[in-house]
Design a protein that fits this description.
By secondary structure, this protein is α/β, with parallel strands linked by helices. It contains 19 helices and eight strands. About 2% of the residues have low confidence.
Length: 450
């Protein structure tokens, strides 16, 4: 959806700031974002002016957040430029210190603001127990779910709860990427002792997106020792991931075993009742002017599997209302949703047979050959690729996939997925072929849905 020609820059900036404040929290927003001013807004760019002393820092540290929030409000085509830093130089991640953990916790992510439903009840309850009794129950606690279902919210909720009610217990929150950057920085600056002190001398360690530790041998080794140091002294570990521990094929088995040693809790997409509750809470929290229940119902019915996208759609409807002065009704909501979240028709994912047929055709095989017991290399590799794509694009169980390939067991399916994962890291042609196949499968499904 193109921006209306009469968009008023200050009004747009006001809505963007509200979204940035939600993402960063009040303290970071007031310190770094509040001093910014909007200079210019056209169909493609939002030009922001920052004080000269902080231009480079704001561009490097908050540039992506500003652009993401601007796109939530104005559309995916908008790019954000912080004046004076259109070509920012890369900035090394500073090493953590013992007292900087509070700055990384978002105060808006609390247990009170988390909407409980059937899909997340176990995870929420386990996180609350871990926050109330760090190290005494569910240690480690491993949360797994697709992106956008509340894993990060729960991590921050634990951190905020412990900080407020634990009587001085220390907390550190980090993404796997942050952990990696801090570790590499410590290696480069020969300050490993400082790094170890920062991560191993805390009462609660919260690590987001541990799947990104895969294939980083030295970082994985350091994380293994960090995990052991905390676990063996009774400190709480809470980890999040987009898949189950046994599916982290790029991680060493000893780490996967440790991840499984405590409680593994999944979060599944919210049902309609929960999605409605999430929208109502978000509207109440941010004092959004949504009185029409049908508007919330339309959003909740259209967006079913991602809480972040659900809330983003609501913000986009409000923003479009603010920019165009049109009433917030079903017509406006449908127009906004049709642009970013078009109505789905037919099936939402390809079938086993469709993926098998696409892969067989690509490698000049018949489907019968693809699912046969043959171990010839010209057949075995395409079969492994087909198994990998089915697992990736459908999320089917290992057993179900094995049955689609002549009754193979789950270990064979797991081996095929691991083989493909490892090969595409070192074989550019295999990686290119996989990407081409993925596009053909998705394009074929789109054509059938039309």
């Amino acid at each position: 959806m193109d921006l209306p020609a009469n968009v008023e820059p200050n009004a747009a900036w006001h809505d963007i700031c509200a979204e940035v404040r939600r993402v960063l929290g009040d303290s970071a927003y007031e310190l770094w974002i509040a001093p910014l001013q909007v200079r210019e807004l056209d169909q493609h760019h939002l030009l922001i002016a920052a004080p000269p002393a902080t231009q480079s820092w704001v561009a490097n540290r908050f540039g992506r957040v500003l652009e993401s929030c601007a796109q939530t409000v104005l559309g995916a085509a908008v790019r954000v430029v912080v004046e004076g830093s259109t070509s920012p130089r890369p900035r090394a991640a500073p090493l953590p210190t013992a007292g900087d953990h509070l700055s990384t916790l978002n105060p808006r992510y609390s247990f009170n603001q988390f909407v409980i439903g059937d899909g997340n009840r176990l995870a929420h309850g386990a996180c609350l127990v871990a926050a109330e009794l760090p190290g005494q129950a569910f240690n480690p606690l491993f949360l797994h779910a697709p992106p956008g279902l509340g894993k990060t919210h729960l991590l921050h909720a634990i951190g905020n709860y412990v900080t407020l009610f634990s009587g001085g217990a220390t907390v550190r929150y980090a993404t796997a990427e942050t952990f990696t950057n801090h570790f590499l920085g410590a290696l480069g600056s020969r300050s490993l002792d400082q790094f170890k002190h920062a991560y191993r001398n805390v009462d609660v360690l919260l690590v987001d997106d541990v799947q990104f530790l895969a294939s980083k041998a030295r970082t994985e080794e350091e994380f293994f020792h960090t995990f052991n140091a905390l676990y063996e002294t009774g400190r709480q570990l809470v980890l999040t991931c987009d898949r189950l521990p046994q599916e982290l094929l790029g991680l060493e088995e000893r780490l996967r075993e440790r991840f499984e040693a405590g409680l593994v809790a999944d979060i599944s997409p919210p049902d309609l009742h929960t999605r409605m509750a999430i929208l109502r809470k978000r509207a109440l929290l941010d004092r959004l002017p949504v009185d029409n229940q049908a508007v919330l119902e339309l959003i909740a019915e259209r967006i079913t599997d991602n809480v972040r996208a659900l809330e983003g759609a609501l913000i986009r409807v409000i923003a479009y209302h603010s920019l165009t002065h049109r009433p917030i009704d079903v017509e406006l909501t449908r127009r906004v949703l049709d642009t970013m979240y078009p109505q789905k028709g037919g099936r939402t994912k390809p079938s086993h047979a469709e993926i098998q047929a696409t892969v067989a055709s690509f490698y000049n095989l018949s489907k019968t050959e693809l699912v046969s017991p043959s171990r010839q290399s010209r057949i075995a590799w395409p079969r492994q690729v087909a198994i990998y794509l089915i697992r990736e694009l459908t999320g089917e169980s290992l057993q179900a996939i094995g049955e689609a390939f002549g009754g193979r067991n789950h270990a064979t399916v797991l081996h095929a997925c691991k083989r493909v994962s490892e090969r595409i890291v070192v074989d550019n042609q295999a990686k290119s072929d996989l990407q081409e196949l993925r596009q053909r499968v998705v394009a074929g499904e789109a054509d059938r849905a039309c």
